[in-house]
Amino acid sequence: MARYVANRLAQAVMLLVIVSAIGFTILHLAPGGPLSQFAASAQMTQEDLDRVTRQLGLDRPLPIQYLEWFGRMLKGDWGKSYRDGEAVLSVISSHLGATLELMATATIIAVLFGCWIGVLGALRRYSLFDMLATVGAMIALSIPTFWFGLVTIYVFSVRLGWLPAGNRETVGDGSLLDLLHHLIAPALVLALVETAMWGRFMRSSMLEVINQDYIRTARAKGMPEWRILTVHGLRNALLPMITVAGLQFPTLLGGALVAETVFTWPGMGRLFLDSIGYRDYPVVMGILMFSATMVLIGSLLADILYAVVDPRIRVG
Amino acid sequence: MADDTGKFGVGSVHPGIPNRRQFFQLGAGAAAGWSLAGSAFAQTERPSSPPDKPRGQVIAALSQEPTVFHPLMPGIEVDQGVWWQVFSTLWFIDPDGKFVPDLAREVPTVENGGLSADGLTWKIKLRSDVKWHDGTPFTADDVKFSLDLINNPDFRARSRVGHSLVKDIKVIAPDEIHWRMEAAYSPYMSILGSLTFIVPKHVLDKVSDPNASPFHNAPVGTGPFRWGERVPGDHILLNAHTGYHGKGPYVERVVFKYIPDLTVLYTQFRTGQIDYAGLQGILPNFVQEAKTLKGRKIFVSSTSSVEHIAPNLEFGPFADRTVREALYFAINKQAIIDALNYGLPTQTESFVPQQAWSFQQGLPEHKYDPAKANALLDAAGWVRGASGVREKGGVKLEFTNSTTSGNAVREQTQQLLIQDWRAIGAAMRVNNMPAAVIWGDFWQQSKFNSVIVGVNFMLGSDPDVTPRFGSGAIPAQGGRGYNTYQYKSPEADRLLAEGARQFDLAQRKATYGELQKLIRNDLAILPLFQGFIAEGVKEGLQGFRPNINMSINCWNIREWYWA
């Protein structure tokens, strides 16, 4: 087990180095740069732009820039944002809370509802509920998050006035009730696709489990149905969900990016989008490395957990 | 009716619950624009004057995030929105284009002795009742420090245009400062008035790195509002500076809310979550509807930006003035203005905004005349080939046009241009790019054939366009400036040099008038229209005054108040 974990860790580190090199190169080779936004400004001449480019060290060869950045990063210095001069780690941490809040809420909603729909669909296969759940999941997976977000705002904010049309809080309020009030719409929009996914996976997994011999044996022994389903069925059906949870992180991050834009949610997704637009290299690289690390940790944890609960898949 | 008076007296929304009938009306699409957001101004009496002390708050929405808070470093318009609240300039430019003293007691002129007749010596008298937000008195040392900092080679100054000419700065007294200019440069008056904020010496002369210090993210100024807090990616909060030396402020707090999507920004304006829909304003397609919203006021105002087609004058066919003239005749400008921009912008022939003192009336007016365009090209020897595209001496009249991808209105404009120009035998192809790409080397080094762009040619309120049209300002030819059109004219150079030396307004008006005639005649640019912005405020919010001489219309929040 220890060797298995060590192997996976070594692979993850190698992968991070490759991601950093490719990301850095693509980002810097893309036309434009952090000063492009000033090019059309009446206030900065080409001479000014050249001077600031030199001052930022952007005129040096790319490999040197990369090695310097990488060396600093190893020491824990991820650089400073070109936009506001803040340390990259501080910029990321200032946006991380909002994203985690959104993602965690959406995940809780998705897991609870998705698993419930999935289990019920599996137990009542081909019933009206199951068919409605299947059609609903297909629709949910097909709806663009951006469009659904705008429709949600239109209905619940513009027309009904039940929910705020975005933002994380009312400035000057910030009470828990206010925070929850603002969280409902973006979390539900983000949870929609997740719920559909969890529902479909759970249904398949549960169907597989309830057709196993040990379930039939349990029934033959006269065990109560609720106990069969919870102790033997649900526990085993949830095993593959560990992998699903680990692999859901990138999807969730992508969805969060859209939801944050629509609902003016000050999270990582929007920061990433803004930073790419501004060509804020240090922040983009910081987010890239952070996200890659999170994805790798997610998948690593899923694999390790799986190896812990299912000895058959352990390697070496 | 919901009570709309929030914690700070205004602006917060407490939506009610609709009754069953209202709920079912949703499906019927009735009551368009119906919102349960109350009005922030439901008052029985409306004071016609500002309150005695700051009251309430203003939530000002911007579609870009202000991130640069050191006002002498590279920043964009939204950053200026914050700078105007936190800092002060020696004088500012009001909506009528007049210089109004701020930190200075008076605007220096030859008549009051502030300026020498040759324009080389400047003597500025300063106010002695100004305090920084931390209570330290403002003095001439701060002005000297700010000007020195801009010229400090280690400092990432936004621009040194004009400042680099300043020599021998002498602090005569705490409220008086003199300096000498290396050469007479009249636009410096406007540069000081609209782009040069004074920063505190007592805070910044202690920092080891002028490009990074705590000040950069918690600035101290002399402006009407003190720095409060910043939640990155969300909002910036400023509090009233009660010791402000000028008029106002009349609101307790200003919140700059960052809402990147313009549709969402408008929605939040509509639902009452924001009090002011600012930069980049309300999308043209929403303006008509916005005007019908209850409890909202919409302002459509001109900006200094001139939307135009920028030809690369060193590119084959565009080097021929006849071609440019024919292309100009063939553009159906009115269709672009009416059909694509909802009739909101104003037609123009100049690079100077029509509200400016230097605007030249009576420039030749554009006419949509494809027949004349064809005749001009025929006469100049541009012959139609088999494909319908004209040629002359082996050069085909075909070219690309670029603009920022994703800008729907400009992309639609390109489609109209393709049709208009096809009718006269010119073939245009679209070559659009993301903003960060197009405004990089592609634009700066004149690698384009033609571009649709909106440019503010003015230096504050000054029409000095040496960096735009001077022959020494072509970056692609090693010049210092942003003459990306690659326009070269000895006459324009002469007029530009003359205009920058003159201090008499009448003389300058005549000089820049001649220059506008020349640029219009040479068709260095093909102007489409003067830019515009549609902004909205909640009814009851007083004091909003669009100012074409500023980069952003929320320049004077100190004068805003709730009636």
Plain-language structure description:
The complex is a heterodimer of chains A (316) and B (563). Chain A is an all-alpha fold. Chain A has 2 domains: 1-75, no CATH class; 95-278, Orthogonal Bundle (MetI-like fold), CATH 1.10.3720.10. Chain A has helices at residues 2-29, 46-56, 62-74, 88-123, 128-142, 145-159, 176-210, 213-220, 225-237, 239-262, 268-278, 281-309. The relative contact order of chain A is 0.15. The model of chain A has no long low-confidence stretch (mean pLDDT 86). Chain B is built from 15 helices and 21 strands. In chain B, the strands form 5 sheets. In chain B, strands 1, 7, 8, 9, 10, 11, 12, 16, 17, 18 and 19 form an 11-stranded mixed beta sheet that branches. Mean pLDDT of chain B is 89; it is low at 1-45. The interface between A and B is large, with 64 and 81 residues. Chain A: This is ABC transporter permease.
In short:
Chain B: This is Peptide ABC transporter substrate-binding protein. Chain A is mainly alpha-helical.
The helix/strand order of chain A is: HHHHHHHHHHHH
Give the full name of the CATH homologous superfamily of the largest domain in chain A: MetI-like
Shape, per Cα inertia axes of chain A: globular
By CATH, the superfamily of the largest domain in chain B comes out as Dipeptide-binding Protein, Domain 3
Oligomer: heterodimer
Task: Count up the helices of chain B.
Answer: 15
Structural class given helices, strands, pairing of chain B? alpha+beta
Radius of gyration of chain A: 24 Å
Q: What does the overall shape of chain B look like?
A: globular
The CATH topology of the largest domain in chain A: MetI-like fold
Estimate the mean pLDDT confidence of chain A. 86
The main sheet of chain A comes to: none
CATH top-level class of the largest domain in chain B: Alpha Beta
List the total number of helices of chain A.
12
The secondary structure category of chain A is: mainly alpha
Biggest pleated-sheet summary of chain B: 11 strands, mixed
Average predicted local confidence, pLDDT of chain B: 89
- What is the level 1 CATH name of the largest domain in chain A? Mainly Alpha
Number of strands of chain A: 0
CATH architecture classification name of the largest domain in chain A: Orthogonal Bundle
Straight-line N-to-C gap of chain A: 8 Å
Pfam family, one (chain A): BPD_transp_1_N
Protein name (chain A): ABC transporter permease
Transmembrane segments (chain A): 12-30, 102-123, 135-159, 179-198, 237-263, 283-309
Subcellular location (chain A): Cell membrane
